[in-house]
Amino acid sequence: MSANGLEFPVLEAGAGPLVLCFHGFPDHAQSWIPMLNRLATEGYWAVAPAMRGYWPGGAAPDGSYRGSATGADVVALIEALGRDQADLVGHDFGARAVYSAASVNPARVRKLVGLAVPYGPQLMTAFVANGDQQRRSWYMFFFQTRLAEVAVPLNDFAFIDRLWREWSPSYVRPDADRAALNQMFQQPGVLTQTLGYYRQLFAPPSTDPAVQALEARANGAIHAPSLYLHGVEDGCMSVDLSDGMESVFKNGLQRIVIPDVGHFLHLEKPDEVADHIVRFLKA
User: How is residue 197 annotated by DSSP?
Assistant: First the structure.
């Protein structure tokens, strides 16, 4: 799928109103397959693209892995798929992408669903001032170093296994899913490209006034009716970071905290999470 200067690999199912699903790290579009199938049975055209950087030819053409760039990808994909508007679902960095798209291009977004990563200024504040979140986010700071490219692939990506265990302590990944994800990260350039999301997360602001203006808009208010889902056992992002985020959602935010699940809640309780999302989209 050609969009925004990239050829996005996509998974899709069904026909009807468009729902786009975006994954995070360390993950890939295949994790959305159960959700795509459920959405298809509910009468939707469900599409899960790879995020920029997550395939060998997917390096950011402009060098950017910031929210404004991934949000622009979201909007470009809606247009490339021939639709004026779509419902958006995003997990982790995929959530950041759909928040950006909804903030910058509200006319393109009918409804929005975010999973596991909240939205609002409190998130960046937590990285600086919240000791509990700093402990949870230790890997982000490690990823700023070039040691990451050496350490992450060691022992068949034991580093990635550790993140999944810490973030979703009650979830056991199927061997086939683990192997498929590791195979993706083994592809030329993919690991360094995906680490770019973290390396630019704390990078100094751009000196380009146009980019500065776009970044400001990408962190603005969201006007699409929205749903936010977070697991109580999330070892990556504390559920407390979503407290008060309603203030930046100008047409309503439904916030649901789900017990007994961690960061990858759409895989841990796929039916329950899909029920919440379908109910919200059809309301």
Answer: H
